[in-house]
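In response to reviewer comment 3 from the previous cycle, which asked for concrete evidence that the modeling workflow produces usable outputs, we include below a single protein chain processed end to end. The sequence was submitted unchanged, and the resulting structure tokens are shown without manual editing.
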Amino acid sequence: PRSFHSAVAFGDVAIFTGAKNALVHNIVTRTYRDIPLNMLPDWLQSPGVQFIASGDQLYAAVKKQWKTHIYRISARDASAGNFSKAVHLTSLSVPIRKIRNWDNQGIGLLAGDPDDRVYRFHTQKEVLTGMKVLDMNGVSFLDIAPYQNGIIVATGGGLRAYNYTSRTWGSYKRFYDKSSPKEVVQCNERLWMSTQHGRLMELTPVNKFESRIGGAGFDMSDSQLSDCLEKNGLLYLAGKGRVNCYDPDLRRITDRWNLPG
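The workflow returned the following structure tokens.
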């Protein structure tokens, strides 16, 4: 037993591996099968190998120098000692803090890099979390909506999309308004945002927000209003040396003028 450095049990079988040989033990039939060194792949002889059984598969994480190599072999082949049939899934240039069975549907790895990324391995590698984004720490989400291949969140600094595939945050989609976002929604492949001041804004293809409903209010009070004119469907209001042009269809002021004197 002292010559073995790793072991794993699954079903009715226990496997012990070492630098010189491997041993397959069936606990039901109480039989032992010795696998000589010349039948063992190099990775199985490594003292840094760690086994995890999941479903009908056996996974191995092997530390070599600065990398961790992930292998998979069927429980049936492993029980028969056919370790040469193992498949190399991938190599990670990060240390592994934890490795766990993922509900008998593969394994999950918690990386020991500064980003604490989580990986899942089943038929292929999946990155379940992305890199840390320090400027998102403590940011309040005012609203969240499905967006393209992920979600988009509304914050006080703008909208920001998160991609499920790459597990990364995109750059901020900024809006220049004193009001805070209230709601964000994607409709017909177009992104819309309402604000606390009642504006409805659309994100254009060049990632700029255009006001569709509402906008900055009138820059004069009722008592300062001195004249008004309706022309071509537009309402012109004058007072306090200014003229505001209001479009009833767009429900916002579309132009302003300051009058001399």
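The chain has a mean pLDDT of 84. We consider this sufficient to address the reviewer's concern, and the full set will be provided in the supplementary archive.
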